[in-house]
Design a protein that fits this description.
mainly alpha
């Protein structure tokens, strides 16, 4: 949805072209949503200390062009410092003990608060990890979309109806998944835009007409969202 508009802006920038006019409103909304997600991640991290909150906040900020918040910078600074301290402990250890201190993987997970799986047999739900406690991204996405819809309705002067917003969000999520699956079938491993191709090659190696075509391709899902009316 709004991520398609952001992708179109990046494609246009790779051509040295201004952002298409139709991307302005979706990108602004995307950045507003990103700020909301980052704030929520800050709250969740304050009481869970789950590093996945920091990971999501970092990716949201970088994707939307937002500055990294202080709490996230402190998390990264502390993790880097602890990891460096562990390395210094390894370097200062006597020769006979150095091999015992040579544990960078463990030191990294400890430095950044990544808990090891709990011991004991696996259950039907598996062991509890920072991933499993942060895993239900489908409902997280739906919740974010509800916020997007409510903000748009409020801006347009429509009353905000919670049940209708949730229904719209579920419909958007299903439609988005179906769109991605459809494009994946048509394009194989390349994906729903040229992001994979751009990672493999410089944008200068991709024809201008191809990139312009991809910008128009990114426009379709944005039309779907922007044309929706509150019921």
């Amino acid at each position: 949805m709004k991520s398609y508009a952001l992708q179109a802006v990046r494609l246009a920038a790779s051509l040295g072209e201004p952002a298409p006019e139709w991307t302005i409103s979706p990108v602004e909304a995307y950045r507003l949503e990103a700020r909301w997600v980052i704030e929520r991640c800050a709250e969740e991290y304050s009481w869970t200390q789950n590093p996945m909150c920091a990971v999501q906040a970092y990716l949201q900020a970088r994707s939307a062009g937002e500055p990294l918040p202080n709490w996230l910078l402190k998390y990264l600074d502390w993790g880097m410092m602890c990891f460096w301290d562990a390395f210094q402990t390894f370097m200062d250890a006597p020769a006979e003990e150095r091999q015992l201190k040579n544990r960078p993987s463990e030191a990294f997970t400890e430095a950044f608060g990544i808990n090891r799986p709990k011991s004991g047999p696996l259950t039907s739900k598996g062991r509890s990890t920072v991933w499993s406690r942060f895993a239900d991204l489908r409902w997280l996405t739906i919740g974010e979309t509800v916020v997007q819809i409510g903000a748009r309705w409020a801006k347009d002067g429509h009353p905000i109806k919670q049940i209708a917003a949730v229904k719209e969000a579920v419909d958007y999520t299903i439609a988005d998944v179906q769109l991605l699956k459809s494009r994946s079938r048509r394009r194989g491993a390349i994906g729903h835009c040229t992001s994979a191709a751009i990672r493999r090659r410089s944008p200068s190696c991709i024809s201008k007409s191809r990139l312009l075509s991809e910008i128009e391709t990114c426009r379709a899902p944005c039309r779907f969202v922007n044309n929706a009316e509150p019921s």
